[in-house]
Amino acid sequence: MHENAICWIDGRILPAAEACISVFDHGLLYGDGVFEGIRFYARRAFRLHEHLQRLNLSARAIGLALPYDLPTLATAVQETIVAFGENDGYLRLVVTRGAGPLGLDPRGCTRPTTFIIADRLELVSETARRKGARLVIAATRRLPADGLDPRIKSLNYLNHILARMEASHAGADEAILLNAAGRVAEGTADNVFVVRDNRLLTPPVTEGALEGVTRAVVIELAEAAGIAFEERPLAPYDLYTADECFLTGSGAELIPVAEVDGRAVAQCPGPVFEEIARRFRKLVLEEGQ
Ligand SMILES: Cc1ncc(COP(=O)(O)O)c(C=O)c1O
Predict the structure, then answer these.
(1) Which of 79, 205, 239, 278 has the fewest CB atoms within 10 Å, i.e. is most exposed?
(2) Residue range 77-98, pLDDT digits in tens
(3) Domain limits of the chain?
(4) According to the 3-state scheme, what is the secondary structure of the chain?
(5) Which atom number of ligand 1 is nearest to the Cα of residue 54?
(6) In the CATH hierarchy, which fold is given to the domain comprising 6-119?
């Protein structure tokens, strides 16, 4: 946590270190809640509408009635950015089931807890961002959709954390999770793209990926740039033999990949990545004005 980090919590803005939730909050006890990670540039949240829509759908999917409507949350987000005082940064908007009796049953949780943290976030080192990240394919699998639908951005990240620990243990920057069938799902907090023969490819979300806001932006930018794009199931082989590979996410932004399980990616950063990254930087600043 950065010392200037601040937190909006149910209508109050505090230094983040002073913001507290109950030890009986089911978000803490059981991971019962939903969240969004949002970047802001030039003091404006990027693609806020899309993030709030996804939060709303995640909440509906778990039967959690949001305690604030979306315009109120949008205002709270803007107030949080202003209070943080830096031009660029990262927001974590969390809605938990709220405090209730011990036991899984959420019916005793009478009011959800809502908070928005504003802080800085660097998911990988500056070197990895410039020269490319090293990835490992984790032994830990993405939860199957019939266990937890990947479109729900829930507080349950333990298997992603275990995969991320595998990456750290191997001296890598990030891990790729496969689905139960052994095909590529996504990174621990990002979506994955490859380029092969000038075609941009990413797995369909039905392969077990979050429907990423940045993923959608990258697809838009590729289409605008005339880059052929296709959603296609990918195997580890496709990462090992890619012409280019990169990760996308609100936290990650766009990160080129240099290596997957010790196999060097042919071009890093490659020309397709460079073109999309250039357009992405322009877009976030334009939309941030
Ligand atoms: C598991 C997972 N996949 C993908 C992403 C990227 O999604 P977005 O671009 O909406 O941030 C995230 C972001 O938090 C994530 O947690």
Answers:
(1) 278
(2) 999 999 999 999 999 999 999 9
(3) 6-119, 126-287
(4) CCCCCEEEECCEEEEHHHCCCCCCEHHHHHCCEEEEEEEEECCEECCHHHHHHHHHHHHHHCCCCCCCCHHHHHHHHHHHHHHHCCCCEEEEEEEECCECCCCCCHHHCCCCEEEEEEECCCCCCHHHHHHCEEEEECCCCCCCCCCCCCCCCECCCHHHHHHHHHHHHCCCCEEEEECCCCCEEEECCCEEEEEECCEEEECCHHHCCCCCHHHHHHHHHHHHCCCEEEECCCCHHHHHCCCEEEEEECCCEEEEEEEECCEECCCCCCHHHHHHHHHHHHHHHHHCC
(5) 10
(6) D-amino Acid Aminotransferase; Chain A, domain 1 (3.30.470)
Q: Which atom of ligand 1 is nearest to the CA of 160?
A: 1
Q: What is the pTM of this model?
A: 0.96
Q: Which atom of ligand 1 is nearest to the CA of 37?
A: 14
Average pLDDT over residues 190-213: 97
Ligand 1 proximal residues by C-beta, below 6 Å:
37, 160, 186, 189-191, 210, 212-215, 248-251
Output the pLDDT for position 5: 96
Q: Which residue is closest in CA terms to ligand 1's atom 1?
A: 189
- Per CATH, is 126-287 categorized as 3.20.10.10? yes
Whose C-alpha lies nearest to ligand 1, atom 15?
Answer: 189
The answer to whether the CB of 6 falls within 8 A of the CB of 80 is yes
Report the chain's mean pLDDT, rounded to a whole number: 96
Tell me what the mean pLDDT of segment 225-232 comes to. Answer: 98
